[in-house]
Design a protein that fits this description.
This protein is an alpha/beta fold. The protein has two domains: 171 residues, 3-Layer(aba) Sandwich (Rossmann fold), CATH 3.40.50; 176 residues, Glutathione S-transferase Yfyf (Class Pi), Chain A, domain 2. 45% of the residues lie in helices and 22% in strands. It contains twelve helices and 14 strands. The strands form three sheets. A six-stranded antiparallel beta sheet has the order 2-1-4-5-6-7, covered by helices on one side. Strands 8-12-13-3-14 form a five-stranded parallel beta sheet, sandwiched between helices. The relative contact order is 0.16. Bound molecules: adenosine-5'-triphosphate. Adenosine-5'-triphosphate (ATP) binds next to α1. The site of adenosine-5'-triphosphate has 18 residues, from α1.
């Protein structure tokens, strides 16, 4: 699968831009702030229906204009797929595949698998658990449509349960039966999600370990582990046991919406004890593992976006990625960099076709 053509109208800093891509390697070069990352983000937008960097749709519209449009022509399984994503202030965002608008964006997720490696991935280490849950959910959803639907249902019931807890508190009332209707549904959907996350991590963790060992030739022991209260108790028991606490807090304090991933190095949290280089290697291993997992599950090679790769990676890691490209492990690759010479030098060593775009 690859992206042949991209057209932008009023997307971030571009008023109008048309690009014809190489099926293998595309390098976007130019000075800081020229819009290299914005082009990668537009490609991400076509595959996921939202920006990777700024989820506020109105802020993706070029300043002083009223709408944006991203138009991409992909080739998948020898068929042309035209995806158009448009958004006008005050309206709903629309995604069309070959002229037909999706009712639900979730139906589009996974159709065009894509993985991005960017400096913003650091959030996975430094930010709260929701960032890591989104990562797991994102990887599973790209190859399991039912998972995303269950997650949507769980989130809906959770919101309703929280509203009910708030209502009880404001009106100084309580109705155990009304709450138990939600508890049952949370248990059903939550247990399904927990099982899929557990299964996913069972196969994902060894891939991650292998990627980390490839990138960093060091001996350090990095670990990725699933953290969930459902590992010890059923969700219905957890909900029953935390009833008083939830009533006091006016929200649901237990469930798969509290799951997390532990990132450790030699037994200590990587956030506090990992060097910058170790943290970078960890994140790249995580993203390359995502790439391999999706490739295996979806039976399609994802598009890979490498944002600011050379600033982020040292020579060994760049060499490692280049070796992978030569091994035909990758499909289409997009690389952004500020230095045209540096990029050209690297891609010339690869025996693959490439195109350089000077922005
Ligand atoms: N909604 C918007 N309207 C107009 N310009 C925008 C909008 N959103 C972002 N920009 C502009 O886009 C530019 C950033 O583009 P981008 O992040 O793609 O740069 P880059 O080429 O990747 O830079 P760097 O090399 O520093 O990473 C900034 O100048 C920013 O002001």
């Amino acid at each position: 699968m690859f992206l042949k053509r991209l057209s932008l109208v009023n997307y971030k800093n571009f008023d109008s831009k048309n690009l014809d891509f190489d099926p293998t390697i595309n390098c976007l070069v130019g000075k800081n702030g020229i819009g290299k990352t914005n082009i990668l983000d537009a490609i991400y937008h076509l595959c996921f229906g939202k920006s990777y960097f700024n989820p506020v749709a109105t802020q993706n519209i070029k300043h002083g204009t009223e709408f944006f449009m991203i138009d991409g022509e992909f080739e998948k399984n020898d068929r042309e797929e035209k995806i158009v994503c448009s958004f006008k202030k005050g309206m709903k965002k629309v995604i069309k595949r070959n002229g037909k608008a999706y009712d639900k964006f979730s139906e589009h997720i996974g159709f065009l698998p894509l993985v991005i490696i960017s400096p913003a991935d650091r959030d996975l280490i430094v930010e709260g658990s929701d960032t890591r849950r989104k990562f797991i959910d994102g990887v599973i959803s790209q190859s399991d449509k039912a998972y995303l639907q269950t997650l949507i249902k769980y989130t809906k019931i959770l919101t309703q349960r929280n509203s009910l807890l708030k209502y009880f508190s404001v009106n100084r009332t309580f109705d155990k039966d009304a709450l138990s209707v939600y508890d049952e549904q949370l248990h059903t959907f939550g247990t399904e999600i927990f099982k899929k996350r557990s299964q996913f991590l069972e196969s994902f963790i060894p891939i991650f370990q292998e990627q980390y060992a490839n990138i960093s030739k060091k001996e350090e022991g990095v670990l990725l582990a699933y953290q969930s209260k459902l590992l010890e108790n059923s969700l219905s028991d957890l909900l029953t046991n935390s009833l008083e606490k939830d009533r006091a807090l006016q929200y649901t304090s237990v469930g798969i919406h509290k799951d997390d991933l532990d990132f450790t190095i030699d037994g200590y949290p990587i956030k506090k004890f990992g060097s910058q280089g170790q943290q970078k290697s960890f994140l790249i291993a995580l993203k390359l593992a995502q790439f391999h997992f999706i490739k295996e599950q979806a039976k399609t090679t994802p598009i890979l976006l490498l944002d600011d790769i050379f600033d982020k990676l040292d020579e060994t890691r760049v060499a490692q990625i280049v070796a992978l490209v030569n091994n035909d492990e990758f499909g289409q690759l997009f690389i952004s960099d500020t230095h045209a010479d540096r990029t050209e030098k690297v891609v010339k060593t690869i025996n693959q076709s490439y195109k350089i775009f000077n922005l």
